[in-house]
Structures are given as structure tokens and as C-alpha cells.
Amino acid sequence: MIAHSPHLQHDYASRQDLLGTCLGRAPREWLSEREAHSLRSIKSSRRRNDWLAGRWLAKQLVQEHLGESRRPLGDIDICSRDEAGRGARPEIQLNGKTEPWSLSLSHSSLGVIVALSVTPGVRVGVDLVPVEPFSGSWFRTWFTSEEQLRLRDASVRDVSRTWACKEAIYKAVHSEETFMPRRFDVDLSNKDRIGCHYSGQGHLESIDVTTCDIDEQVAALCVMQTATTESTFRQPILTHPNGSDTR
Questions:
Q1: How would you classify residue 182: left for phi > 0, otherwise alpha for psi between -120 and 50, otherwise beta?
Q2: Residue of 20, 101, 34, 33 whose CA lies nearest to 61
Q3: From CA 223, how far away is CA 169, in angstroms rounded?
Q4: Beta partners for 220?
Q5: Helix, strand, or coil here: 34?
Q6: Is residue 237 part of a domain?
Q7: Confidence band (pLDDT; 50, 70, 90) for 3?
Q8: Domain that holds residue 151
Q9: Which of residues 119, 153, 184 is at a domain's end?
Q10: 194-237 pLDDT, tens digit each
Q11: Exposed (0-12), middle (13-18) or buried (19+): which is 136, by Cβ within 10 Å?
Q12: Same domain, yes or no, for 131 and 18?
């Protein structure tokens, strides 16, 4: 599921397969010192496993980009916390040098998805959401009034798609502000292009969003172009391993 292009690579793997691989190796064999410190701070065993599965797949993707399958995974350092310990945009270091790349990852009870862009001016965001009903109170709390109207008679899948898009878009466009779901109004009604209005910033024209179905889940990929992006940028497509995609 890797999209080989100058702009983007992405990959998906089942949680069970990832844990079967990474839990079979001692953390000191493939984590950097900074990552090992982060792991020790996670008390929940489930969260530790989610974190390990995400790091393993992300490092494999970086290796794939570098074309260096023998590079020690411990040389690849991925940090998603700031100096105060708060969640932040993932940062990649290779042998202590910070790379100007954009990385995003998401995990669920079933799998992990990661996306990587090494193109200056391109940011990525991904999210993975199980296709299952949302509770009424949760729906009313986190979806805008306009989304609630559009999704009133929608399928469970489209509700899940909308939520996945909200998360993916936030990860691509945020400037370290806290995620506030109701600030993002996602519109799936246009079959050719998923639209999003971001409160305070208007309609986001500099993003492209695609979704696909994976193992009874919806995955969403958002790619944001900044002012420095080359004009030759082409919209990437998020593809399922069998090649299917949904705009």
C-alpha cells in the first residue's frame, strides 16, 4: 500500500501483525534513546502497544523512502511530544539531525496507518476510524450543526468518513493548537472533492482529502500545500491494498 511518488508514501498494517513483529524484539534493539524514554512514560499496556505498533510501521516507511533496509531502526528517531510533554506534530531525526519532513500516523483496535511526505511545503495527516455507530450525544457534541443536518440520514460509513476526515485535516493543517472538532465542517456531498470549512480560516482550498475502506474501517488522508509547494503538485490518492479508493 505504498504510493511511490515524489510527494507521498503511505502504508497500512494490521495491529496484530505489527505487534507480532515488534513485541518479538527488545525495545533497545530498535528504539532511539528519546523514544525509549517516551515509552517508559506510558503506563497503559494497550497504549504502549499502540505506540510501539505505530513507531514500527513509521520507521519501516522511512526506511522504504531512504532505500536503506539495513539502516538500524534505532538511528530513526520519531518524537511526537514537545518539551513540556504535550502532543505535537511528529518530528523525524536521522542520527540526531532533524529532517524537514511531514509524518502522520493513526491507529485503531484493528490496524495502523502512516503517511510520509518529504516534499518541502507539503504536510500530511491521516486517520483511521472503525465503521461503527456513533452515540447520539457524541454525535451532537462533536459534529457541527451543518454536519448533523447533512448526516441525519447518512450511512454509518459516511459518518465515520466525516470523522476520519476531520482528524486527518486537523493533523495536516494545525499550528500546534488543540483539536476542536466543531471548528472543522466536513462536506462529503461533492463526489469529486471533499470540502472543509475551518472556523476562523474559511474554506480550505489548499488541501486534498481522499478516503478508502480498510478492514471494516475508514482511512482518511489529507495533504496540505503551503505557499512553497511546487506548482506541479498532483493530488495523491489513498489506496486500499486491493487498489480501491473513495474520493
A1: alpha
A2: 101
A3: 8
A4: 127, 211
A5: helix
A6: no
A7: very low
A8: 121-227
A9: 119
A10: 999 999 888 898 899 999 999 999 999 999 987 654 444 445 56
A11: exposed
A12: no
Q: Is the pLDDT of residue 81 over 50?
A: yes
Helix ranges, 67-202 (H): 136-142, 145-150, 156-173
Tell me, rounded to whole angstroms, the distance of Cα 48 from its chain centroid. 18
The CATH number assigned to the domain holding 131 equals: 3.90.470.20
Residue whose C-alpha is closest to residue 69's, from 81, 80, 84, 59: 59
Inter-residue contact 202 to 184 (CB < 8 Å): no
Domain's final residue, options 89, 119, 149: 119
Q: Which residue has the cell 539495513?
A: 70
- Amino acid at position 185, single letter: D
* CA separation for the pair 121, 229 (Å, rounded): 5
Beta bridge partners of 124: 223
